[in-house]
Amino acid sequence: MAENSLPVQGPKIWERVPKRNPNFTGRKDLLTALRKSINTVTAVVAQPQALQGLGGVGKTQLAIEYAWQYRAHYDLVWWVSADQPMLVPSVLAGMAPALGLPPATSTGVEQATQAVLRTLEGGFPYRSWLVIFDNAEEPEYIKDFIPRGPGHVLITSRNSRWSDHEPTIQVDVFRREESVAFLRKRLGDAISPEEADRVADKLGDLPLALEQAAALLARTLMSVEEYLALLEEQTSKLLSLEKAPTYPQSMTAAWQLSVSQLQERIPAAVEVLRCCAFFGPEPIPRDVFRRGNQAVGPRLAPILSDPIKLTNALSHLERLALVKVEPTTRTLQVHRLNQALLRDETPEKDRAELRHEVHLLMSGTAPADPDETANWPRFEELAAHLEPSGLIDCTLPDVRRFALDLVRYLYVRGSYRQAQALLNEYIAKWAEASGARHKDVLAARIHLGNTYLELASYPRAEELVAETLELMTDTLGPEQPETLWAKTGYAATLRGRGEFARAQELDAEAAEVYQRLHGNSHQLTLRARHNLALDYTLTSKYGEASKILQEIYLSQSSTEGVGRRALLLTWINLSRAVRLSGQFQVATDMAEEAYNYGVAQLGDDHPNTLLAAKDFAVSLRRSGRLGEALQVIRDTHTRLHRLYGGGHANTMAAALGLANALRENGELEEALEMAKRALDHYPEVFGDEHPFTHAAGIDLALLMRLSGNPEAARKMDDKALAILSARVGRDHDYAVTCAINLQNDLAALGRHDEARAVGEENYRAIQANFTHDHYLALVCAANLCLDLQAAGAEEEAKRLLGETTQRFETVMGREHPDALALLAGERINADFDPPPI
């Protein structure tokens, strides 16, 4: 088979590549040069190739033909429309399942994009791949998204600056023989070689102009002489008006002639075409016109309310090559040059009207809920037109609501940087147009605060949301939906800063208002109470947390329309609250059910499923099933690290969970290394003063003592206990846990009187905040028995041992590892497993 012949079958993965142009003509020299240069290897990897040239010369068509002609040489071909740099990450992220990676719906766009780039560059599962970035204008916008590896990258652009960054092939107009061949291929015997030569000469051999000329000649059946005469007239008129200084003269003339012919016969088609000029250059969803008949103003309403008139208009636009229709994706697209020419020749008053019509079409036909995964493809289509349409400048409330929904879509997809950039633009423009205290501006600020939280910028989030909450309270009132939303957002920033008690206070206030306004079972009330339960978990009020979460779980289970993600999250948090209250076996059973539900409903690698897996592993270990726990937590940590890297809060929590399981399994060296790596990230992510940063040190100190360095462990635990007592209280779970280990550190150093004093103080603190049968109370009492005995208080030690042994058997069971350790006279250690914020 010749290298450039059609293959018997295409690549395994073939995505987003436009249909092959049946009228593609010539360009053999460019295709040969491109194939040769794209195979050139420098510094081990192939270099990306750029096709650069004037608009309308056929760069995109050349890239399409290359993909089709050489598809047999690739395992994967992926087309990326790079007009909107904001959308490039989501298109790349869409490649994840094809590469055997978790989808962006479960990891977020940013993580999925980086995983795709790493996988492409690693050459597994595919070494032969082709990624095409079409219409990439500014090199700086996409350079970080270009994979460098064993495959090939092709870039099309009008920007000559690409030659400063990548090897570049210049694409010029057709050679004359190619122009003639193209026209003859399109029109057959209806045009002679001589006539084709004259048309090509008049149009300057520009491929796009030739395509429009052929379409017009074929559609209208006018003679070539008539066409050339009209073209001469139009060209002279355009030149006299100086309408096309930045566009090829041939392009302007051919386009204007097609439009003027259409205006005489079907003016509705030209009106639709003008509307399309104010969308972006990306494909326009066909359904915005079908569903937009009730959403637009007087210009388009008569057309969109008449399906026959609309269909007739679109069919004529396609036949004259003024729009490109893709039936499989139900989209239509107008060439960027045609859009620019249409905008330029539209009077300013009409431009504003048409632009507003587009805003109404987009906002009026958008899905209602950006959190619903099924709506994401529609939001992605519309997001491509957000900035080009100037929608951000519209002051209509419904349009602004749609703009915020688009940002929310980017947020839930994980495109936090893109959401942040858009929100900054919203805030600046809306504040200038409507004032800094306008409701839409304040809502955008809360969205931005939530984005900062996901980016772990906790101080920025707290400052922004606190100020916005105050403005909303003054401007809108304390019980408006936006104000209550801001209050819960501020509580989340406080959790991010480690202010658990203050967050609990705010969430309790918000939950009370939601309950009063909407009732107990409303989704807003349940969401607010869920936040409150999370606060209770972080302040060691496990009974209160468990009660609230159980009520929410029952309500969600019996209510239609509750999302699977929300139900799973409640289930996970309930099992955690039960475990932390000391009911290990029940918690394990619940955690296993939640995990299996997540796998079945959301998939193995969904973040909530992985959160369930992590908690299931902790419960398995706490209930004495160490082998199973180690297997689950090791697999979970591997998955989280692959998705997020080591510096993500969930990965860090899984790393400590794995270190704890390895420690109990006697694998101290690996456990110590794992804990050290995790602890390195805590100050970076949470800050030096966050309770998690110091509580995580408990696990490392324990491993240092068991590895033969009890003095270093004592110093770490002594310092951590002082800080945790000040930050969260002496009777908090984290402080109590730290004191148990400090007691053991002192005993290991032979300082039994000090160990006894710490143990007795700790036992009193535990009894003040926990039940006598709580796990922490049992462990502290077990160790205190040994210190009392070592200090000579034999009778007191004997009495406490009898009580503790009986309670251990009742609560934990006689065969639990800690119960066996108690009977063997061994000290029992405590550790920290970080919950989510």
Task: Give your account of this protein's structure.
- By secondary structure, the protein is mainly alpha-helical.
- Among the domains are: 13-170, P-loop containing nucleotide triphosphate hydrolases (Rossmann fold, 3-Layer(aba) Sandwich); 176-265, no CATH class; 583-688, Tetratricopeptide repeat domain (Serine Threonine Protein Phosphatase 5, Tetratricopeptide repeat), CATH 1.25.40; 695-837, Serine Threonine Protein Phosphatase 5, Tetratricopeptide repeat, CATH 1.25.40.
- Helices cover 65% and strands 5% of the residues.
- It is built from 39 helices and 11 strands.
- The strands form 3 sheets. It has a 6-stranded parallel β-sheet. It has a 3-stranded antiparallel β-sheet with strand order 9-11-10. It has a two-stranded antiparallel sheet with strand order 2-3.
- Strand 2 and strand 3 form a beta hairpin.
- The longest helix is centred in the middle third of the chain and has 19 residues, at 416-434.
- The radius of gyration is 33 Å and the shape is elongated.
